[in-house]
């Protein structure tokens, strides 16, 4: 009860240290460590046992804010070995499946683990993410990212070429595909996935989308949809409101389909 | 164990009955009920105990597919008394907070309950959504929507004018505001929310965004961001790939901010 | 001199009769004709010799405004036999070429003549548009559209299959291609076009773009660009400013390339 | 006749020298001058009397192409003292008016002259652009830009504060406003503009749009529209087709309105 309402920063907690838009860092609150920026240094010992929302000062007198990292912050600040799925895309895709606490989910490939950590968070406490990746070094990096955010118990990594070997599980609630050749995975995914449930995949190029959809149709998936999610920032300032003038204009095309089963 | 992998449609389950893009219905699998469409009728008794993914035929011989509804389907097919937040916006906003299983969340107003059901799903099994709404009739409709999707135990409704009375809770993990005058709620939200945690709000008009941000600044919120999420469908057909020619071009501007606390 | 500043509506002038956003008509000011709308009728005799900008009243007392049609109005209100290029796309494409008064331009196909009239207007008084179309009935309709807006002397129609027969002209300043299979026209266009000058083409589908670009590369065109131009309306109202909620989300992909010549 | 079809680069012609996407220059073909790039130098004497479309080689053996500059190239490569209107916006706005060869047009402010040169080109040979600007140094730079592209005879510059002094002309066919406070110009524009004709204005911020529209309504302008034109590049490459990943996301909101006159 008391624990539930506790809002103190604990040793090893992840904290978003925010000075301004250009100076925001995801830091682990480890006593004895220091962080430095061009607006001054701060001693992480000083924030442990402070509440989230605490306002501190760097040694140069600049305010910094100790904020709770959002799920998107955890993704975007993960140590990256690969490009990652963006929160705008993942938020959309997650709701395009039926997953929630307790779900059993497959993702392929693991990459930096940014997707893995979000899926793990939302299938916790009893669900599991089976994360497949061909490169052992990617898994090692992703494992550290997952451990840092505290969802290691909800993830099981496998280093294998799924296109060749397939998956070790069946009756899976949703499959998330983030590889350059999703079409090579689709037949294996069709075996592992529960009937009527969701496969999602995303790719930057139109040709990848077409080949993936052909593979989905060949494996009797139905209700296929392709979307793009475009994020646009609005700047709200004293001198006026307007959209940001430059930014990201494309990340990926997002595919969703549902598995049909033959019955007798 | 067996139960976990069970994929049979049970009496009263929600099933997405899909004939084609123009004929897709969220139906409760109640024995004895019939559904009808211009492509033929079907008896819902026939789908109970069939697996999800089952392909049936209407009495006119048209195939229909028994699919698992996605979280977005549950939202979009909720019985509406009001406009609802769109999955593209909610997926983004949810990841802009830190909520997950076990979180204690406030939403205001309840509206049709489309947001309520998604928040309830993702804070389950142990978390709770405190949903505030001024209109008792909206709460009654939302309650039915929530019960239908099975998350009633994770929602507590309150019928009150929050701008006047404030919230009954403190130490809340995230606050979702969906009312025409968010700025009137912000001072009360600043009391209920945990330090460092997230308030999100969305409004269709620029002026609403400006007034809300002024209120957020007056209440010492920091790290405010405003985004628009634009969804664009790609049609992938034999005759060629292209974006859909007409569609939704605006829903809402999305605001996110984090609460700062004064310390002594 | 007096003539230059004359702003009176003359017999047979095209006038945009504007009652409100939903009731706006391009009418020819012909004495004796009447127009009717659900907000009342008006006698076109009454507007002849009135100045543009004149405010009249229907027989039901509703104000109507006699406005100068813009070039975009002339396009959008042309009698259509086909889909037309949109002003947002044409405005962009026209500036992507070097055409202006005096230019000799080819367009293919004529379609409804919406593009033809704009090109004719901007190459007048001494330039010419050579407009090619396979269907005689399209040319007949386009000819009427062009005559109505008064640029018949700047257009020469030819009814022929250009993919087979090629063009009758050479040393053309710019070529505008609006046919379903632009790639079939490209080799003929490469003959007719001046060195270093511009070919533009537009197509709704990605596959059309790809094949056209392959044809352009095979014919030694360089500096190829593909763009999409997306128009978004902002509603500025007393209750607030926001983008329109539904609208057109795709028309065409726009290609521009420039012809290279081999020299010895 | 011969002259009409002549496509040779003449002394002082503007030529777009194109090596690749990152190396493209608008150069005046002046004998004796050299241009240099990291891919080699070229002697401009070598391109005079060559035809447009000519392929040359730098002293390092890299191909360069001598292309005809498009109208958009002339704008984008003008020597800038200010931000300029983008071709995507200007192309749209120009068609939202009725201007063409012979029109008398006002623009305010002159800025770098990018807009001026395009208006001058499209009202030539007999029309004129009255260009107003408060800063004499801006006019000097713009004058050079206009002279370089050859439309000096179609432009008349005036250095004055229009908000105070108004315009020297009446019965103008269209007015283009590109200043930070368009609302201060609107009452003067209402005097100078022909009845029923078009005023266009563009501003980056929502507040500017609102104030301008209030001024337009106060001066009895009607049929006001506000649009945004968003340009999106598609990359068509061997490895696949996709939108460009980063780019310009906002330039300006575009306003168009038409003048009403009181009649007696």
From TrEMBL, chains A, B, C, D:
Q: Which GO annotations describe the biological process of this protein? A: tRNA methylation
Record keyword S-adenosyl-L-methionine present: yes
Gene Ontology MF term list? tRNA (adenine(58)-N1)-methyltransferase activity
Summarize where S-adenosyl-L-methionine binds, as residue positions. Answer: 112-115, 133, 161, 178
- InterPro entries (alphabetical): SAM-dependent_MTases_sf, TRM61_C, tRNA_MeTrfase_Gcd14
Highest rank taxon of the organism: Bacteria
Q: Domain tRNA (adenine(58)-N(1))-methyltransferase catalytic subunit TRM61 C-terminal spans what residues?
A: 79-243
EC number of this enzyme: 2.1.1.220
Catalytic activity field: adenosine(58) in tRNA + S-adenosyl-L-methionine = N(1)-methyladenosine(58) in tRNA + S-adenosyl-L-homocysteine + H(+)
Q: Which UniProt keywords apply?
A: Methyltransferase, S-adenosyl-L-methionine, Transferase, tRNA processing
Q: Where is the signal peptide?
A: none
The record's GO CC annotations read: tRNA (m1A) methyltransferase complex
Q: Which family does it belong to?
A: Belongs to the class I-like SAM-binding methyltransferase superfamily. TRM61 family.
Q: How does it assemble?
A: Homotetramer composed of a dimer of dimers.
Instruction: State its role.
Output: Catalyzes the S-adenosyl-L-methionine-dependent formation of N(1)-methyladenine at position 58 (m1A58) in tRNA.
Q: What is this protein called?
A: tRNA (adenine(58)-N(1))-methyltransferase TrmI
Species lineage: Bacteria, Bacteria division WOR-3
């Amino acid at each position: 009860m008391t624990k539930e309402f506790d809002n103190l920063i604990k040793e090893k907690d992840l904290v978003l240290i925010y000075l301004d838009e250009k100076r925001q860092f995801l830091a682990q609150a480890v006593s004895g460590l220091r962080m430095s920026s061009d607006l001054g240094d701060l001693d992480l010992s000083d924030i442990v046992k402070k509440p989230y929302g605490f306002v501190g000062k760097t040694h140069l007198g600049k305010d910094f804010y100790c904020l709770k990292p959002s799920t998107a912050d955890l993704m975007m600040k993960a140590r990256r070995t690969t490009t990652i799925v963006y929160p705008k895309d993942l938020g959309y895709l997650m709701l395009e499946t039926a997953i929630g606490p307790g779900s059993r989910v497959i993702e392929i490939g693991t990459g930096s683990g940014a997707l893995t950590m979000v899926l793990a968070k939302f299938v916790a406490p009893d669900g599991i993410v089976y994360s497949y990746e061909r490169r052992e070094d990617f898994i090692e990096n992703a494992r550290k990212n997952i451990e840092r955010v505290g969802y290691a118990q909800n993830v099981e990594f496998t280093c294998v070429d799924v296109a060749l070997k397939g998956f070790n599980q069946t009756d899976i609630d949703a499959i998330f595909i983030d590889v350059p050749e999703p079409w090579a995975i689709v037949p294996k995914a069709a075996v592992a996935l529960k009937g009527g449930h969701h496969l999602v995949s995303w790719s930057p190029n139109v040709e990848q989308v077409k080949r993936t959809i052909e593979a989905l149709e060949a494996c009797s998936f139905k209700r296929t949809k392709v979307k793009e999610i475009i994020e646009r920032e609005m700047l709200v300032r004293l001198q006026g409101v307007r959209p940001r003038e430059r930014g990201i204009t494309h990340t990926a095309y997002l595919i969703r389909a549902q598995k049909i089963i033959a019955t007798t």
